[in-house]
Amino acid sequence: MSSLVSASRLVGRVAIVTASTDGIGFAIARRLAREGAKVVVSSRKENNVLNAVNTLKKEGLDVTGVICHVGKADDRKKLFEVSEKLGGLDILVSNAAANPEVGSVLDASESSWDKIMDINVKAAFLLAKDSLPQIRKSKYGRIVFISSIVGYEPSDILGAYSVSKTALLGLTKAASSQLARENITVNCVAPGIIKTKFSQPLIESESAREESLSRIPLGRLGNVDDISGVVAFLVSDDGAYITGETVVAAGGMSSHL
Ligand code: NAP
């Protein structure tokens, strides 16, 4: 689908996409680069970064790789050092998430709760905060958080994770309000069930897949490009008058998983 992209709305922009060596993040990185942005690609594992960068460079895209575990301050700092070298940051897409445990919210262990909140919420907050020195200098400042449909309607089996994704809806509203007068937009995307490694437990067995599909009015699971196109729209000039919003891209799904 994304091979049909012919828009070049992001020429001259520099973008950071976290957790962008696989899944939704990789598709976002590829899409922003196809639209002309210089994209900083990152994740925790060196091999994944090298593979993703090689793949995208072979497609003629302008990408730079750096190792970044979003929970590590030194790694986050490196992201911004790279964007600075590329001319300064215009677009931050905070996409990384963790879900170490499946189960109801009050059954979550304290260590799982801490990890989920550290990666999904605190790191997103710190990345947005630390992006400001560069993003404030951009004429096109854009911040996008990746939440989830379960941020609206918590899932019984993804209890603590759902709460972390609800926090991102609030972070989007609060940060957008703070930054609106500076012409920096802050938005959020809430995907439904998208085919990636992350969603494997919801789709790998025939019965789980059928159960998931039964909840999706459009009758299909989402593809990563169903999300990357929404992000590209929000960070382009076409999305310039949108801030503080969360776009749900979930095939019409609204109930819990
Ligand atoms: P995925 O396919 O499992 O992709 C994971 C990517 O994240 C890999 O590149 C991985 O690389 C990187 N990563 C994992 N932990 C990281 C960390 N702490 N710091 C930096 N990078 C990290 O996941 P996905 O499905 O694309 O999910 C992306 C986002 O969409 C998440 O925020 C998720 O909550 C959200 N979402 C997904 C779905 C869905 O159905 N898939 C639905 C709603 C929301 P390394 O292993 O090298 O770090």
From TrEMBL:
Entry's transmembrane regions: none
One Pfam family from the record: adh_short_C2
Keywords: Oxidoreductase
InterPro entries per the UniProt record, alphabetical: NAD(P)-bd_dom_sf, Sc_DH/Rdtase_CS, SDR_fam
Nucleotide-binding among keywords: no
One GO MF term: oxidoreductase activity
Family statement drawn from the similarity comment of this UniProt entry: Belongs to the short-chain dehydrogenases/reductases (SDR) family.
PANTHER family associated with the record: DEHYDROGENASE/REDUCTASE (SDR FAMILY) MEMBER 4, DEHYDROGENASE_REDUCTASE 4
UniProt xrefs under NCBIfam families: PRK07231.1
Protein name listed in UniProt: Dehydrogenase/reductase SDR family member 4
